[in-house]
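Lecture notes, unit on binding sites. The following record was shown on slide 14. It pairs a sequence with nicotinamide-adenine-dinucleotide.
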Amino acid sequence: MSSNTYRIAALAGDGIGPEVMREALSVLRAVGDQFSLKFDVTEAPVGWAGIDAAGKALPDATLELCRRSDSILFGSVGLPDRDPTIPKEQRPERAALLRIRKEFGLFANLRPVRLPKALAHACPLRPERQGDGIDILVVRELTGGLYFGEPKKTEDLGNGQTRAIDTMVYTTSEIERIARVGFKAAQLRRKKLTSIDKANVLENGVLWREVVTRIAPEFPDVALEHMFVDNGAMQLLLRPTQFDVLLCENLFGDILSDEAAALAGSLGMLPSASLGATNGQQTFGFYEPAGGTAPDIAGKDLANPIAQILSIALMLRYSFGLNVAADAVDAAVGKAIDQGLRTGDIFSTSEAGARRVGTREMGAAIVAAL
Ligand code: NAD
């Protein structure tokens, strides 16, 4: 990073990507003005937009831009109806997303799930289970465990049986680095970390629990508890307000983060961060909405830009340590919600005082609320 200039690659992608990115970048400009911060934003094509512009889902120039940047702000990629003849490995979901994940060593996925009280109607749980609103951060390990462990194969046993093998494997250092991400994230929040494992059955779970417990004294201000994953899945539905940060290995995090996401009512509200290595004060990060390209509503001013805008808050907080600016973005989103503005995905005719708005109006209201 050159002094106080934050270099950001903005890759809007396909479908609703460009619409929600446009609103997010106007929020970023407003944050820059308000806090005298310099954001050097360069936009580049990715996904089908990359294929159209340069013949590749992740054009070389886009990848090069990402390498020169301090963080990537991503929209989403993939259009199911476009050219089905293109091989899987060249399709945007693989060729762009997986490539970026690998290239930048993104090992930690952070998914905050926040259900403001005003959106209680969008949550599938009864109001009495929602307390004063749900606010959970799922920290998921992204590069190890059952998804990548070797051996990984399907074999013919020759007796009419086929055997499939996946291997769950974690090393001490892999657990240590994700645990530290979890503890640090808890320090920025309500200082409680629930570590999820299956230590009663899995060797991996025993090691996970040992290592997380050993790291805990480095973060004396964070309260650590351990929970078996099956109980965690149940507690998310029974009493989600007990959780602050959930620390999970890859598979458990994949499942629990989607379960937690369902509590927020709409994909359009959920940002996500994938973090790589930390260098000095900065952590390389990849920030994107949890949802996809939503082709059903693309180009109609219907998409909820909040997930993309909250991705900016995550970037400010987790890559650049700009917590006050991040708080301001979170608060501005909260204000727009409190004012009753609702895109279609969070609108209900039964909600008194709610007003249905489009992507642009929601974005403009959030900028105004800053
Ligand atoms: P999707 O997330 O795009 O859409 C699912 C539903 O959620 C749709 O009804 C959509 O309208 C709604 N939705 C999503 N985001 C919204 C928003 N911001 N505001 C309002 N409503 C929103 O999932 P899908 O339809 O299964 O996938 C469409 C394409 O997106 C596919 O090609 C898929 O591969 C791709 N995808 C990409 C990513 C990514 O780039 N990270 C993630 C998921 C899906």
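Take-home: Residues 16, 20, 76-80, 93, 97, 267-268, 288-289, 291-297, 303-304, 307, 345 surround nicotinamide-adenine-dinucleotide (CB under 6 Å).
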